[in-house]
Write a structure and sequence with these properties.
single chain; Formyltetrahydrofolate synthetase, domain 3; twelve-stranded mixed sheet; three-stranded antiparallel sheet; 26 strands; globular
C-alpha cells in the first residue's frame, strides 16, 4: 500500500474496513476455479498450497488469456501496480468473468524498510494481508535455508580437505537473509581461528535477490528444480575450473528444503477473487514475476489471468516478454501500463507532486509515452491505467486525457483503491476490448541464439533507447568467462535502476542520446540467465532512518497493527 494514499484515509476507516471484511473459506475460493479440497494443503481457513498435480489436469483445458500489468518508471513509494492488478481482477469478476490473479510474495526487507507490504491497498488487497506480508506459508524461509545450506557446504568442503580445490578467493556464491541489513554487504567469515573454518571474504544478498528464488520461480517440476539447482555456479578452483552445486552434491538436500515452496499458494482478494501469491524475485535484480507453476496452473483453470511484472516496462515487462514467457511458453494477450499523475509530474522535475501543475503533466507524460512505445514495439497495443490519487485535479486529468488521445492510446481512470472492483470497471472494459483484436506474433527483442553481448545491446538500444552501449573492462572479462563456460547463449536479466529507462536515476521522462554502461556480468547458470550490472545496484538494501518496522506491533489479543 502506498504511504501517500494511506495517509489520506482516516485510520478509523482503514481499521474498520479490515475488521468488517469477511473472508471466504479457502475451499470455497478454490472451488470457483475448479480446484477441489483434495488438491489443497491448508494453512488455516484462508490460505493453502495447491498440489502440483493440478498443473497436469489444467493443461488439458482451454488456455485462458494472460493480462500482464506493468508500469511507467515508479517513485520510491510505487505507483500502485499490485493494487491495480488486484482491482482489475476484481472488476473482471464483477463483469461475470472467470478470473484469477497472480502476484509475487512480499519480502520482509521492504515490509520493514521504506516501501511497506506488497498486498495491495484500500479495497483492492489480497488477504489475509498481515500473514501474507509476514512469513506467509514459509516459502521465503525455505529459499533462505536452501541457499545457506549451499553456502555452508561450500565452506565445509574447503575446511575438510578441499578435494575440488575450490579457491576461497574465487567463491562467487554469497549468503542470504530476508532482511534489509547494510552491515552484511561485505563481511569476513572464519575469523575465529582454525576451528571456525577458512578465513575468507563473503557477503549477503537479500532473499529476493538469491538465485534460488529465481530458480524456484522458473522451475516447472521437481526434476527441473533439482537440475537447475545442480547447475548453480559456486566458484572456481585454483586452476580456474568452474565448480557447481552438483559437484558438492548439494542439490538433492536443497530441493528437499524447497519441496513445499514449489507448490503455488492460493489466497483471495478482498472481494473473494482467487489469488495465486507465489515466490518473489526483485524486478531490478532478477526477473520480477510470480512463478511459472502458478501462471501455468491458473491459465488452465480460468478465462482470464491478471499477473504483474516488477517496476517499469523496460525492466519487468521486458523480462516477461524475452525471458519468462519463453521459458514457460506463456501467452501474453493484453498489457496494462499503470501510471500516476504524481509520477508524471515528478518525471517533469517537479519536487512537489501534490500541488496542481498542468504544465508538469504535459512535460512528464513523455515517460508514459516511452513505456507505451516499448510495449507497442513488442507488438501489443497497451491500455494505460491512471491510478487516481486524492491530489489529482480535474484539470490535470483532462490534460492527460488530451495527450493520450492524440497518440491513440487506450486509457482508463482506475479508482480500485477507494472503490475496489467497481472502481476498475472502466479499465476492465478497455482491457476486454483490447482482447477482441488479437495481436500478431510477439516481436521479441532478441533471438535466443544471439550472443549475450548482442542480447545486452539489443535490450539497451531497442527497449531503453540507448545510442551507445559501453562494456567496461570487468564486463568484457565476464563475457569471455561466459563463453568459456559454454553459457554464451544464456538469457539476459538486466539489473539497473527502476527510476529511469536509462542506467542513471536522474535521467527522467523520455531521455534521448544517452549511453548505457555495463560494469560487470554475473552468472546465474541454474536460473539460465546472466545478470549485467548497469550501475551500482544494491543486492542487500539498508534500512532508512526511521524504518517502517517501528510502527509494527502486536496487540494483547494477537492482532498485527501498523503494517501498511
Amino acid at each position: 500500500m502506498s504511504k501517500l494514499i494511506s495517509s489520506f484515509l482516516p485510520s478509523l476507516y482503514r481499521d474498520e474496513y479490515i475488521m468488517t471484511s469477511s473472508l471466504l473459506d479457502i475451499g470455497t475460493v478454490a472451488s470457483k476455479i475448479g480446484i477441489s479440497e483434495a488438491d489443497l494443503e491448508r494453512y488455516g481457513n484462508n490460505m493453502a498450497k495447491v498440489s502440483l498435480s493440478v498443473i497436469e489436469r489444467s493443461r488439458k483445458n482451454r488456455r485462458g488469456k494472460l493480462i500482464l500489468v506493468t508500469a511507467m518508471n515508479p517513485t520510491k513509494e510505487g505507483e500502485g501496480k499490485t493494487t491495480t492488478t488486484i482491482g482489475l481482477g476484481q472488476a473482471l469478476d464483477q463483469l461475470g468473468k472467470k478470473v484469477a490473479i497472480a502476484i509475487r510474495e512480499p519480502s520482509l526487507g521492504p515490509c520493514f524498510g521504506i516501501k511497506g507490504g506488497a498486498t495491495g491497498g484500500g479495497k483492492s488487497t489480497v488477504e489475509p494481508s498481515d500473514r501474507i506480508n509476514l512469513i506467509f506459508t514459509g516459502d521465503f524461509p525455505a529459499v533462505s535455508a536452501a541457499h545457506n545450506l549451499l553456502s555452508a557446504m561450500i565452506n565445509n568442503h574447503i575446511y575438510h580437505g578441499n578435494k575440488l580445490r575450490i579457491d576461497p578467493r574465487k567463491v562467487t556464491f554469497p549468503r542470504t537473509i530476508d532482511m534489509n541489513d547494510r552491515s552484511l554487504r561485505d563481511i569476513i567469515v572464519g575469523s575465529g581461528g582454525s576451528e571456525s573454518g577458512v578465513l575468507m571474504k563473503d557477503k549477503f544478498v537479500i532473499t529476493p535477490a538469491s538465485e534460488i528464488m529465481a530458480i524456484l520461480g522458473l522451475s516447472m517440476s521437481y526434476s527441473d528444480l533439482k537440475d537447475r539447482l545442480s547447475k548453480i555456479l559456486v566458484g572456481y578452483s585454483y586452476d580456474g575450473k568452474p565448480v557447481f552445486a552438483g559437484d558438492l552434491k548439494a542439490h538433492g538436500a536443497m530441493a528437499a528444503l524447497l519441496r513445499d515452496a514449489l507448490k503455488p499458494n492460493l489466497v483471495q482478494t478482498a472481494e473473494g477473487v482467487p489469488a495465486f501469491v507465489h515466490i518473489g524475485p526483485f524486478g531490478n535484480i532478477a526477473h520480477g514475476t510470480s512463478s511459472l507453476v502458478a501462471d501455468q496452473m491458473a491459465l488452465g483453470l480460468v478465462d482470464y489471468l491478471v499477473t504483474e511484472a516488477g517496476f517499469g516496462s523496460e525492466l519487468g515487462a521486458e523480462k516477461f516478454f524475452d525471458l519468462v514467457s519463453r521459458i514457460g511458453q506463456l501467452p501474453i494477450d493484453a498489457v496494462v501500463i499503470v501510471a500516476t499523475i504524481r509520477s508524471i509530474k515528478l518525471n517533469a522535475g517537479v519536487a512537489d507532486s501534490s500541488a496542481e501543475n498542468v504544465e508538469a503533466v504535459e512535460a512528464g507524460v513523455q515517460n508514459v509515452l516511452k513505456h507505451v512505445s516499448i510495449i507497442r514495439n513488442f507488438g501489443i497495443e497497451p491500455v494505460v491505467a491512471i491510478n487516481r490519487f486524492p491530489t489529482d485535479t480535474e484539470a490535470e486529468i483532462k490534460k492527460l486525457e488530451e495527450i493520450l488521445k492524440e497518440d491513440n492510446i487506450s486509457w482508463a481512470l482506475s479508482e480500485v483503491y477507494a472503490k475496489g472492483g467497481k472502481g476498475g470497471i472502466g479499465l476492465a472494459e478497455k482491457v476486454l476490448k483490447s482482447l477482441e483484436t488479437p495481436h500478431g506474433e510477439i516481436k521479441r527483442t532478441y533471438s535466443e541464439d544471439d550472443s549475450v553481448k548482442d542480447k545486452i545491446e539489443a535490450i539497451a538500444r531497442k527497449v531503453y533507447g540507448a545510442s551507445q552501449v559501453v562494456f567496461e573492462k570487468r564486463a568484457l572479462s565476464d563475457l569471455k568467462q561466459i563463453d568459456k563456460l559454454n553459457l554464451g547463449k544464456s538469457y539476459v536479466c538486466m539489473a539497473k535502476t527502476q527510476y529511469s529507462v536509462t542506467d542513471n536515476p536522474a535521467l527522467l521522462g523520455w531521455p534521448k542520446n544517452f549511453r548505457i554502461s555495463v560494469k560487470s556480468i554475473s552468472i546465474s547458470a541454474g536460473a539460465g540467465f546472466v545478470v549485467p550490472m548497469l550501475g551500482d545496484i544494491m543486492t542487500m538494501p539498508g534500512l532508512p532512518t526511521e524504518p517502517a518496522a517501528v510502527n509494527v506491533d502486536l496487540t494483547d489479543d494477537g492482532k498485527i497493527v501498523g503494517l501498511f
